[in-house]
Amino acid sequence: MRLENLVALVTGGSRGIGRAICVKLASLGAVVGINYVSNPAAAEETLQQITAVGGTGFTVRFDVADAEAVQESIKEIIATHGQVDILVNNAGITRDGLMARMKEDDWDSVLDTNLKGAFLCSKAVMRAMMKKRWGRIINVSSVVGFVGNGGQVNYGAAKAGLTGLTKSMARELAGRNITVNCVAPGYIVTDMTDDLAEDVQEALKAQIPLGVLGTPEDVAASVGFLASTDSNYITGQTLHVNGGMYMGH
């Protein structure tokens, strides 16, 4: 399962799950573009971790919700590196709040980044992938898109939307040997979960049959598999990485 001579772009690659995906793909041999929007220092830290595993990468700053910026940045990546073979649509934000009090801006910004961003980035890399007759697009959804979560109607809607986007894109692109799949993480250890009180963490674990929170590396391993030729005959699927918390069909 190697990715030599392939170029990957990971949106939201400067921290958390995105960072782990960047490091995994680089460790498998891909040249990895680390997209970020507001924290260059964090993106550089991801790049250092890629170098530490003997990999190669580069940072690229653009907002996935900005159509013009997406087009220009991806055009530049293709001009410099010749191709984007693997796209991981991981960028995501939250603007949590009960629906009754949610501002329209909080709905729009989450849908624009988490769902429209995947559409814009996929559209921007698609032509080059079709020309090469090979590509991998992997969308990062969430268990929240399948079971729902109070205070996250915007996030849940966007993440559920990614699965519909995945299936329709998979049908459109299969004839060009481009697979499109989705990874849906459950509760993953991040800086945010580290800040939760111990009783809250225990309550989360109680919902998970395996009894532990996942790690960013657990998610990254699944993305690495879907990015490789080992997954040649898999498209339009959602891989649930959640310790059994939700068992989809």
Features:
249 residues; 7-stranded parallel sheet; 7 strands; 15% strand; 9 helices; 48% helix; alpha/beta
Topology:
Layout: E1 7-10, H1 16-27, E2 31-36, H2 40-52, E3 56-61, H3 67-81, E4 86-89, H4 104-132, E5 135-140, H5 144-147, H6 153-173, E6 178-185, H7 191-194, H8 198-206, H9 216-227, E7 238-241
Parallel strand pairs: 1-2, 1-4, 2-3, 4-5, 5-6, 6-7
Biggest sheet record: 7 strands, parallel
The coarse silhouette is globular
Low-confidence stretches: none
H/E topology pattern: EHEHEHEHEHHEHHHE
The count of DSSP E runs of length 2 or more, i.e. the number of strands, is 7
Distance, first to last CA: 27 Å
Radius of gyration: 17 Å
- The proportion of strand residues reads 15-25%
- As an assembly, this protein is single chain
How many helical elements? 9
Helix share of residues?
Answer: 40-55%
Class of secondary structure makeup: alpha/beta
In spatial order, strands of the major sheet run 3-2-1-4-5-6-7
Mean pLDDT: 96
Can you put this structure into words, describing what you see?
There is one protein chain. With 249 residues, the protein is of the alpha/beta class. Helix content is 48%, strand content 15%. The chain has helices at residues 16-27, 40-52, 67-81, 104-132, 144-147, 153-173, 191-194, 198-206, 216-227, and strands at 7-10, 31-36, 56-61, 86-89, 135-140, 178-185, 238-241. A 7-stranded parallel β-sheet has the order 3-2-1-4-5-6-7, sandwiched between helices. Strand 1, helix 1 (16-27) and strand 2 form a beta-alpha-beta unit. The two termini are 27 Å apart. The mean pLDDT is 96.
